[in-house]
Amino acid sequence: MDDLVGAGAIKDRVVMQTGNSKYKPANCEFYNFVGADKFEELYKSADIIICHAGAGSIINALKNKKHLVIVPRMKKFHEHTDDHQLDLAEAMEKDGKAVCVRDVERLPDAIKAASASTVPNTSDVLEKKVADYLGGLEGK
Questions:
Q1: What are the beta bridge partners of residue 17?
Q2: Residues near 48 by Cβ (< 8 Å), separated by ≥ 6?
Q3: pLDDT for 139
Q4: Which of 32, 46, 61, 111 is most buried, taking the most CB atoms under 10 A from its CB?
C-alpha cells in the first residue's frame, strides 16, 4: 500500500494499522495499534477496507457497509499455520461480499474492482454466517 501511494497509483487517504511490525510507512498515515473508538472512526470514514481475513476486520467492514478487499495470510508464505484465512476470503468473494487477493501484485486491480462494485448489502444473517464459518474452523 505504501509503495502504491508513493508511486501515485493511489491518491486517496490511506490509513494503515501496522501492529508490531518494525516497518514504518513513508507515504501513509499509520498507527501501530488503535483503540476501539479510533478503530470505529476509521472504519466509518473509509471508502474501502483492505485487510487480512480476520473475523473482526471483516465483520466491521460488513457492518459499516464498506467495499472490502481481503488479502488473506497464507500458509505457503509461512504467515499462518493453515489456509483458513484464504478459505474465508474465497467464501466472501463467492458470495459477492469482497474481493480476495491471492497475489499482492494484483492489489491495484482488486482495489479498482472493489471500488466499482456495489457495496455489499449485509445483514445479521451474513454476520452469523461468518461467525458460524469461523467457529467451524476451530476444530480443524
A1: 31
A2: 66, 67, 68, 69, 111, 114, 115
A3: 57
A4: 61
Work out whether strand 99-100 and strand 29-31 pair parallel, antiparallel, or are unpaired: unpaired
Distance between CA 104 and CA 138 in Å, rounded?
27
Burial class of 101 by CB neighbour count within 10 A (0 to 12, 13 to 18, 19+): buried
Collapsing DSSP states into helix, strand and coil, what is residue 10?
Answer: coil
Q: Which residue's C-alpha cell is 461467525? A: 131
Q: How far apart are CA 125 and CA 121, in angstroms?
A: 11
3-state SS, residue 132? helix
Q: How many CB atoms lie within 10 A of CB 46?
A: 17
Q: How confident is the model at residue 99 (pLDDT cuts 50, 70, 90)?
A: very high
Helices (H), 1-139: 2-6, 36-45, 55-63, 84-94, 107-116, 124-137
What pTM, to 2 d.p., does this model score?
Answer: 0.80
**DSSP codes joined into one string, 72-106:** ---GGGTSSSSSHHHHHHHHHHHTTS-EE-SSGGG
